[in-house]
Design brief:
The protein is an alpha+beta fold. It is built from 15 helices and 28 strands.
Length: 578
Amino acid sequence: MKTQSHRSRDLMTLLIGIGCVLLVLFIGSFTRLRADLTSEKRYTLTPATEQLMDSLPDVVFLKVYLSGELPADLRKLSEATRELLDEMRVRNADLLQYEFVDPSASPDEKTRNETYAQLQKLGLQYSSIRTKEKGAESERIVWPCAMVTFRGKTMPLQLLKTQYRTADADMVNRSVNNLEFEVASAIRQITLQFKPRVAFLDGHGELDGLQTGDITKALEEQYSVSRVRIDNKITALSDKVEGGRYRVNKFEALIIAKPDSAFSQRDAYVIDQFVMNGGRVLWALDPMNANLDSLRAKQYSIATPLDLGLDELLFAYGVRVNKDMVLDQQCAPIQFYAAQFGNQQKLESRPFPFEPVVVPRSAHPIVNNIDPVHFKFVSTIDTIGTDSAHSTILLTSSPYTRVLRNPVRISLAVVDLDLRLDKSTTPDKPVAVLTEGVFHSAFMDRLVMADSAKASMGNRETSRPTASLVISDGDVIANMVDREKGMYYMLGYDRMARAKVYGNREFFVNAMNYLLNDKSLISLRSRTITLRQLDPEKTTRSRGLWQLVNVGLPVLLSMLGGLLFFYIRRRRYATVAA
């Protein structure tokens, strides 16, 4: 009887346990409980992405081609992509859908090649992966990319960001870091109903379309980008709407990239009124006429002040760009031919202090978590106190800096001189300054005409809330070009490293995001996720041991658990029987 009673009690305990588990599962089907225990919160979406998911107007479908047999690094990128999409679906499972496919799944080579050709026509790029296993090398084609579809529109999304068709652990790590930004940015771009308008200014010797080709391409992913000339036309940047008191801008932002000739008073007034009406301006200016091409030809040149006719505008907006030049110990190398050795000229690479490499030290969203920015012949900037606007210094030279007053003799011989930059008395000079707030017109006391004439033009003397970003170097926004081939390199590309090294591209994309109040995009880009790498040599060396541990240890633990359970059960029933 006692044995039967114990069995009934055990059966009841089992049924109660099963009932509790089913109840928990039933409650869990209605409640989502999630805990992100990673140090960098890699499974937690930023508020910007959550807002994007909540505001989707219709179904967005992603077809991801990063699937199949993948190397370890790309497998991590694939898993990170799937995890990100799952997290996004938690916010909006009805309007976000995805599918992972393997373009190399077909055993027929002809079919695979046809699939590859079709994907390339869609704008996707493959990666060629060389793997080495047990002493043998093999090459594999993978497609670390996706296709985003929304209301019949499609756009390619490259998950692995690299200039070359190869991948390494660092590239994958950077791609994982930027994964949420890239996916959210693509969804935002394809669902966006209105793109803010950005214009590059022409007509004063500014950088041409080829020299700004890469930054234009980067901005076109988010904005409608065009080029505009003022040519003394009051209607170039804004229009007077009938019945309206003030003018209405044709663009949300204006980029003035390295002009080399003076602006007329009328052109300056048109820009001023653009700012007064809330337009945002990014200025990349050369206050000195330094030229690297003439330096290579003559071994030296003299840099003199360049009068652009913009000083009064910039002063009214809270900054002054000085007519000087910075020498910085923290600088990029330059290649030049040294003294002839026998019948050969030797090409040398030496640090060139006239090309500072500025490491961002500010926590401002524009420069947070970007690579160093490469400058050429940069000048210093002073901030001017205003009662209705405030300035933020974004980039400064290093503590090891000297400032040369004009005129400046620029010579390649500087690479051999002891400039004593480590004993600098002029460290940390501003080279990029952001000013935000309400500005007063630079023509407030200079526009001599009747009030009725001013009113008819829609003249403003005090701006709407706006922002102005001034960089004291025009080359900082210029990408390298090959005129003979009609092509350009990525902004931040280094010829000697043959890769993108500097953060110029990210700096200007972030700057435009900030100026146009797209701060959510910057918060996504600045996110950092650490990818813990395995040592490939140690992995190969210890492969057999860990295979044995992974296979044998669970079996051994199961057997020990079974024996322990059998022993406890036998003792228990032996005691009951006694």
